[in-house]
Design a protein that fits this description.
The chain is mainly α. Helix content is 67%, strand content 5%. β2 and β3 form a beta hairpin. The radius of gyration is 30 Å and the shape is elongated. The chain starts with a helix and ends with a helix.
Length: 335
């Protein structure tokens, strides 16, 4: 999730996108660029363990592949050189390295691209072993390689564009292998190609619906955190947010043993008369207008303006000289 400071700095466009996506309004489920980047970072953190596990599981399967050969033939046999070379010489080191990358550099987008490259290499390796399975004395089902993109989709939660790119690479590898080794024994039937496309399409749909649900959950959680510290009417921080911020500022000043702050508590005079004479709608308009004026005064990162009660507001300016503070408050009274 985002830190509270980032949530408090969300723009109006970002807040509207959170509302639209969490409520399921319309067909646009992509956040504005900065918030989309935050969401993708959240997805990578959420799927980090799944991606590491996927890499380690793949490495384990290739590590056990030479022993599986004897198990399937039901007699002791020496592992064939191509199987040893591909499994132990290439795939096991590759996926152990990928697991380390997913553990160490999970927050970077390059980790996803390396993951895609690794699984594309796995598809090529599986196809190579399948077309050379004659030397093992085994018959390998052509549909076995479809497990690679399916597990990648369902566990890694990649972006749709990257998933489609991987599908294109996957189908390209299958087509290239078929053209390079036009052996009727290993050729895929039209029904096999249809099954592969249907499985990939179904997996993509399942992954996208899961990602959509995750987007809506994430947007709703951010909205709740934002509302917990924001006054709904004016959009300013509420009393809880102001008190927490004030305590942070005081702790920082005490720790540094230097600095000062200006604290002003503001109450709108005769506000009750506005509600009595003109109605609460007009009173709400006055509060929003005053909040808009007040929000222009905080200029430094630690400055804050908040609504602390009905017609009560507060403003905190850090390291503001006394004369400048008096001028600012005079300008506020005249605004």
């Amino acid at each position: 999730m985002l830190p509270q400071s980032r949530i408090e700095e969300l723009s109006l466009d970002e807040l509207r996108s959170l509302e639209r996506i969490s409520d399921g309004k319309g067909w646009q489920y992509r956040f504005p660029p900065a918030l989309e980047q935050d969401f993708q970072h959240y997805v990578r953190s959420l799927t980090r363990n799944a991606r590491i596990t996927l890499c380690l599981l793949t490495a384990s399967l290739f590590l056990l592949a030479p022993g599986v050969e004897s198990l399937l033939l039901q007699r002791p046999v020496l592992p064939s050189p191509p199987l040893l070379l591909v499994s132990l010489g290439l795939m096991v080191p590759t996926f152990l390295a990928l697991a380390w990358v997913q553990w160490r550099y999970w927050q970077r987008a390059v980790s996803e691209w390396l993951l895609l490259a690794g699984f594309a290499l796995e598809v090529a390796a599986v196809e190579y072993l399948r077309f050379n399975s004659e030397s093992f004395g085994l018959g390998v089902d052509p549909s076995i390689s479809v497990l690679v993109p399916m597990t990648l989709l369902l566990l890694a939660r990649l972006r749709t564009s990257r998933s489609l790119l991987f599908f294109a690479v996957y189908l390209g590898i299958l087509a290239a292998k078929t053209l390079y080794w036009p052996n009727a024994l290993y050729a895929r039937l039209p029904s096999s190609w249809l099954m592969i496309v249907l499985i990939l399409f179904s997996s993509l749909l399942a992954a996208n619906f899961s990602k959509l649900s995750l987007r809506r959950h994430w947007a709703a959680a951010l909205r709740l955190r934002r509302l917990a510290n924001t006054d709904f009417l004016t959009g300013l921080p509420n009393r809880r947010a102001f008190e927490e911020h004030f305590e942070r500022v005081v702790r920082n000043l005490r720790r540094d043993n230097q600095g000062s702050f200006l604290l002003a508590l503001i109450d709108l005079d005769h506000f009750k008369k506005i509600n009595d004479l003109h109605g609460h709608a007009e009173g709400d308009r006055v509060l929003r207008q005053f909040a808009e004026t007040l929000s222009r005064f905080p200029r430094r990162p630690l400055d804050i303006a908040a609504r602390t009660g009905g017609e009560e507001f507060a403003i905190l300016l850090v390291n503001c000289p006394p004369d400048a503070g008096r001028r600012l408050l005079a300008d506020l009274q005249g605004a």
